[in-house]
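wait is this the right file?? whatever heres the structure
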């Protein structure tokens, strides 16, 4: 009996290793491609408005395919769908590496996303199938290394590849790893009998696809959404109405594509709300900080990635630690201190977003943020999934990842809007101070005028250059202040998440009934 348990434990950990390979690859690819956008603009000879579809098409395809994974997994089983997903992602990566134009790259990215979108939800449900619930925290902790650290590692690796090697390597490197992953999945993962096809929720699929794709398309514009363009309000209205139809259909359909009745489980619902709020808070570090380092402080993508790397490593270390502690002491004991650490360190990071702060200070506060994220994020997610009967884990995983995809896009948009609106406000206020009655601005213009005259310009041209330079300084200061403000807002959001987390029941070990899905 002991030998059988050891063998089962070994096979479970080997299965986890296979899932981690696919998860890491799919999430890494989402962040690593961003770095290559300027290079692809030059190679394909297209403007930013065209090349951004390489990112947008991937995001839209992800949003469309994730809700379908629960149904496919029920019919074909986790092993077959995971192998298909990893195979499609690998094929898409291979084709992207050979893309000869912007259009072909967009098409191949859609193929890549069809596989990439399935990997995370199917991988999570496989983990719940092979691990007992009393060990699921530790297992998801190791899985979380890939899920949370990959976005931070992507810019570093992408920057290194673009500076030192052929940019196409960011896609080609996935191919041998993906092939190995498919082979290992075929050997290690346990298959299930193929079930007969059941009625497909076509209304649910079409309404979710139209709704999610329409909304993600508009949100993908970030702070630059132009509501005067007719397509944006039309698509947003279409998306909201489609999601409303989707909700009504799923609640009345006998076998829905995404079972929204899972939201009756209190801990699952709270965990989704808290996780969505935290995704917005995390953008303070994962979205704002790279912009500050590259656009304001002038670091290259690789240098900015190296500054972000220590926090990714800290998060990677914290994930299995928090997972192991979760199995022993439950969620709240980890989540509440983690959120307090995240909130305080986010505020401290906002004070470090200045032109004079040292990189050491930025790295330190970002690492402390990672400690808070590592302590709180995975226990929150695990608590929500632990209350789901095992028979519904596949659909719950698809539902959770759909929400995460929408929340991630919405978070970037909200952060962009906060930053842009604060920048405009700061610039307006500071610009008012440039007038003949403001001694400080006149003194600055006078000093700059002398500098330009010393460089050989006439007095008139020197004064024009001085005013122009002062305006640029004001623009720069407005942007820096707005970035710090956005990170500060994220720290306030963390404490809102903490209040909600207090309501989670968070039993340390799920009862036998739910484990067996009775």
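ok assuming it is, sequence goes like this
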């Amino acid at each position: 009996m002991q030998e059988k348990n050891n063998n089962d434990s070994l096979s479970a950990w080997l299965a986890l290793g296979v899932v981690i390979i696919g998860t890491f690859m799919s999430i890494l690819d989402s962040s690593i491609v961003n770095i290559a956008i300027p290079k692809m603009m030059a190679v394909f000879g297209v403007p930013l408005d065209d090349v951004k579809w390489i990112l947008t098409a991937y995001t839209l395809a992800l949003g469309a395919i994730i809700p379908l994974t629960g149904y496919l997994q029920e019919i074909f089983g986790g092993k077959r769908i995971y192998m298909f997903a990893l195979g499609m992602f690998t094929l898409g990566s291979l084709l992207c590496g050979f893309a000869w134009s912007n259009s072909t790259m967009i098409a191949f990215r859609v193929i890549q996303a069809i596989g990439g979108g399935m990997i995370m939800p199917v991988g999570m449900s496989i983990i719940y199938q092979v691990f007992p619930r009393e060990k699921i925290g530790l297992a998801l902790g190791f899985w979380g290394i890939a899920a949370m650290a990959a976005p931070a590692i992507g810019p570093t690796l992408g920057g290194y590849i673009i500076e030192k090697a052929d940019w196409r390597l960011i896609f080609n490197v996935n191919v041998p790893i993906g092939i190995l992953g498919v082979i290992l999945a075929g050997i290690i993962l346990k298959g299930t009998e193929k079930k007969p096809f059941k009625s497909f929720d076509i209304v649910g699929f079409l309404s979710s696809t139209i709704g999610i794709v329409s909304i993600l398309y508009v949100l993908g514009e970030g702070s630059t959404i132009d509501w005067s363009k007719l397509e944006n309000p039309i698509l947003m209205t279409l998306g909201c109405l489609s999601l409303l139809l989707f909700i009504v259909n799923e609640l009345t359909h006998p076998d829905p594509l995404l079972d929204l009745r899972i939201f009756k489980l209190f801990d699952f619902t709270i965990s989704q709300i808290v996780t969505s709020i935290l995704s917005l808070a995390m953008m303070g570090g994962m979205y704002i900080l790279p912009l500050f380092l590259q656009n304001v402080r002038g670091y290259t993508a690789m240098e900015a990635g190296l500054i972000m790397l220590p926090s990714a490593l800290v998060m990677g270390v914290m994930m299995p630690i928090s997972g192991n502690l979760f199995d022993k002491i439950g969620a709240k004991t980890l989540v509440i201190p983690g959120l307090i650490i995240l909130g305080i360190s986010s505020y401290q990071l906002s004070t470090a977003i200045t032109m004079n702060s040292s990189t050491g200070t930025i790295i330190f506060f970002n690492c402390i943020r990672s400690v808070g994220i590592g302590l709180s994020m995975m226990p929150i997610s695990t608590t929500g999934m632990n209350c789901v009967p095992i028979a519904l884990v596949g659909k719950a995983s698809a539902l959770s990842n759909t929400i995460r995809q929408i929340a991630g896009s919405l978070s970037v948009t909200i952060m962009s809007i906060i930053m842009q609106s604060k920048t405009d406000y700061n610039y307006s206020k500071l610009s008012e101070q440039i007038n003949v009655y403001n001694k400080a601005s006149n003194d600055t213009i006078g000093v700059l005028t002398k500098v330009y005259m010393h460089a050989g310009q006439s007095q008139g041209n020197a004064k024009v250059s001085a005013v122009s330079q002062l305006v640029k300084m004001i623009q720069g200061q407005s942007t820096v202040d707005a970035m710090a403000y956005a990170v500060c807002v994220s720290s306030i959001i963390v404490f809102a998440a903490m209040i909600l987390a207090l309501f989670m029941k968070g039993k340390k070990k799920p009862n036998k009934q739910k484990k067996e899905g009775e």
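Confidence is low (pLDDT under 50) at residues 508-518. so i think its the right one actually
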